[in-house]
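Two proteins follow. First one:
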Amino acid sequence: MNGYGQLGDGTTVESSTPVQVINLSKVYKIVGGFYHTVALKTDGTLWAWGANDKGQLGNGTTTESPIPLEVIFPTVTAPTVETAPVTSITINSAALNGTITPNGSDTKWYFEYGLTTNYEASTVSQIIHSGNAATTVSENLTNLMPNTNYHFRLAAENSEGRTNGDDQTFMTEALPSSMMGKAVIIAGSTSAGSPSDTLYPYSNKLSQQMYRLLTQRGFTDADILYMNPLPPDINEDGNPDSHLQDYNLLQPETDLEDAFSKAASELSEGSQFILYIHGHANINNIRITRDYTLPATGLKSLLDKIPSSVQQVIILDTCYSGSFLDELAGSPNRIVMTSTDGITSAWNVEVANFSEKLIRQLRSGYTLKQAFDSATDIIKSNETLFGNQSPQLDDNGDGVYNAVDGIQSSITYIVRDGVQAANPPVITGVHPVMYIPEGKPDGILWLKTSPSGENQIKMVKAVLMPPDFTSAEYSGDETRFSETVLELKYNGALDQYEVRYENFRQKGTWRIAYQVQGLDGQWSDIKFGEVNAGGVSGELSVAVGLNQTQYNVLDTLLFDVTMNGSESSDLYVALIFPQGYFFTFAYPLIPGSLGELIPYQSNISINGQKTFNILELPLPKELGKGVYTACAVAASVGSDPWAVENWFCYDCKSFELK
């Protein structure tokens, strides 16, 4: 057969004997087809002749050839990409468009987008098969922030490389102020306002900071459901803002149901729901009040009330808060941040804490991911303060914190984007390392700020950490979250803030954490100073002694205090009731007024060890059931006992009346 020239001799005449193929030499291999023939030469080129109605000769035509023609291989190059303008922009979505030419090879394409030209996120990649025709592509983005400027570009890659389209931007539509979103803020407490709940002052303070953050970023009071046993003091003028307290948590379960139902009913697509909780917790349980615990399953049920089209930002600052991640999984619109993992019990709030840093960074216009990373850095950089505390983030709904988390939170702000607050004050200088000789326990602490001067700074504080300072291991209501805080005052002559402290009695290196608050309530970053103290001999210790840890009515309570050392002091003893109020006693068993601090004995001088028998009495029926706490404090003679910095030492023991 040679009807199509498949013999390669330049004719279409059949031949029963071999013929010479025209213009072909140095052939390595030859293969005959039914109507065409292909040969591979030693130089790697491929030649074909014969029928070509299906383009089988590979020369770009469909014309048959009775002589060999070289097969033309298409040239493959990186794809050609063009980013097109956005269409269909709404408050939380936009359609990205572009054109891709594959240039001869299968090509993978996707859009990159984000708040900057770093393009913090990308769409799922798709494939265009090989060819040279331009193809229009489109991808619809959802879960965007309202009134936010986004960068985007189209990207494509094949075997020859990657091509990026030009950067373009678009602005999502703004929400009306009434549609920005809703927030629930919860300050949990086991005994609000009582010395027995040492964590509550921080829960109260941080919940107020979160309230101020939300209003500063556009929320109104009507958008915030504030849940706290005590009314807030948002403007910090010393007067409670009772009209801002939406729920006092007297009926916590009912209050929570009502708050989440109200928020859910007033949320709309594109708005944002924010939940912030600070307080005591155990694994998978948050203690909202002394008598009510919110389990992880209960929190999930509350959050399930929120419409699925609404973005949720959940911030849990409690012990073991990471244990909630798995239960809160499954919602693609839910970003969960926790102050620690699910098994860590070490807490410390004396100097700084997760919420304080997180709120400060969000206030300065950081994204959720940026603020989370900054707060995590504070925790991770100082094991002495924070032990093994390990903040967690889940923003892809899989219930765990791992390397794939961070995409959604890196393009999400609280309420809206952009810096919405003035820059915080800055600490420009701190005293060098101070050396205090033995026997002289006082020194002047100072620092310089910008801005500086009268009426330029709201507060300058110093938090003291003595040489034996360790993180407070979480142990429920009895956890020690106390701190020694000094306020520095402005010295115009030296243009610095300073305070004299007279109780550097313990020998060793003291660390001092300094922070400055601006007039708008925003705090500076923390800076540290050091004091090397020679110490003062004759250190005191006190120990409370009880004859039982549980009592029944009419059982005899024995309450003793043992002092050890060689230092003069004022001794205070107190009995704290389950409701949070307390009585102090003067010798010999003379009670003070409710909440009054009177010394048991003043100017006690001991040399060695001495035990004082404070109470020995049957417990009357009128006391009522509950957990009571007996405390003793040794303070410097004649000093203000309300000021913790005047305390030499203290000890407390709890007991239950059944």
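Second one, unrelated to the first:
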Amino acid sequence: MPRAPWTLLVALVTAPLLVAGCGPRPTGGDDDDDTAPDDDTWLGDDDTTPDDDTAPDDDTTPDDDTAPDDDTAPDDDTAPDDDTAPDDDTAPDDDTAPDDVDGDGFPAGDDCDDADDAVHPGAEEHCDGRDEDCDGEVDEEAVDLGIWYTDADRDGHGDPSASTTSCLQPPDTSELGDDCDDADPGTHPGAHELCDGDDEDCDGLADEGLDVDVDGDGHFPAGGCVGGGDDCDDGDATAFPGAAEVCDGDDEDCDGLADEGLDSPYHPDADGDGYGDDTVTAWFCAAPGAGYSTFGGDCDDTYYNTEGLCRWTSVGAGRFHVCAIREGGAVECFGLDYGGSTSPPGGSFRQVAVGTYHSCGLRDDGTIECWGQDTYGQSSPPSGTYSSLDAGRNTNCAVREPDAALVCWGEDVNDMITDVPGGLFVQVGIGSTHACALRNNGTVECWGSDYYGQSTPPSGTFEMVDGGYYHSCGVRTGGMIECWGGADPAVTTPPAGTFQWVSSLDGNCALSTAGAVDCWGGPSDPTGTFSSVSEGGYTQCGVHLDGTLECWGSLDGLWD
């Protein structure tokens, strides 16, 4: 279609303008080196030279130059910078607002603890030892101060008219302000009324209830105004003078004692063996249960013994230690412990023999067990069963069952083991370097050292025999004692009388048929009656008829 004439006219008019816009810029235009602010509205500065004007830019078009700002004037605009080039101004931050770390409205300069929002000027004080209101004082006018009432009579109730406030309770005060007479400790709420015209219980009434038998047992309260007033508990009808005592810890008969006539003695039984320590007694009207026993007689309440027996039955004394047998068969040893000589085994024994550094015991089943030093094999007995036993310095002998033969072991000094005689024997006694034994026909045979004649016994029959250090003694048939050998006549000259046993080492001690102990050749005589005696050289020991053990001599302190 042919173009309209007016369209051609418009094209002719606008064409020169378009051509002019595409040509080179005039050389006389604005080049951003003036000192006045840029107010051109051109679509962007593309020059590469830095701005050296000192006035701030107020143009609204973005700078796209890449050179840094070198102005030195501080930024005072409040809008954020959106240019991407680094600021190189050196002016300081003009923000002077103080910090408030705990957010309690008080900055650090005014707040004495800016880490605690409960601490600041004007805060409430509490009884906690802190200065919450920052005034330099602690706990003053605290909101939780206690109110304390003066308790002059110390009955736990204070005077309501005299009080003080403080965080800590002062002496002689109470938190109760309800005492109607703070000068009388018997007057306060809850006190017992007395027939005296006073109001002891602070209820506004005097002597109330004291003329009434409240529990109906026919007795009026003690201190009552009528009826004699002998009832010690007018709230319990079972409590009155003459009432029967009941095992309940109360005083039913109003005599000031509880459970009298109903209690029994009990003894502490720490080891639970049924026998208590009778040195301590406690009274109970009902069995107190475990830990107590009605039986006493336990001499060692740390040692469990099902028979609870503390009596001794026999004793053997040596130079440096003593061993004894309790009822029930237990062996206990005392004194100096050489290689375990005072550490016997457990079990039941019927005889004990003490050497120098060892001991041996004859068990109930007839076997022998030894303990202590074993240098010569003296603590290593032979097997088998035996009826009699004795121990010397380092040598032991026993009568074997059932053949009644002598068997010896340990140190073979003076051929004491090599020269053991044959035949039938019933008892043996060992000396220092010799031994004597009683044959089944009552005659005595000795062997070993005979330097002083200690191994040359007299003829005749004996009931028992024992060997000493350099001598020997025996009880003849009929009870007379005869001794032989020895260098000192005082040792071999026995007392007159009839005896049932003799024990020899350095000296001698004999048990009379009446139970008295006579000693000669060094040891002294004890008093009392005995069932057993043993001469140990430095120490002598015996068992009294009541089962107590007594030792005397130079080392008696070792067995106390």
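SUMMARY FIELD: The two ends are 152 Å apart (CA to CA). The chain is about 5% helix and 25% strand.
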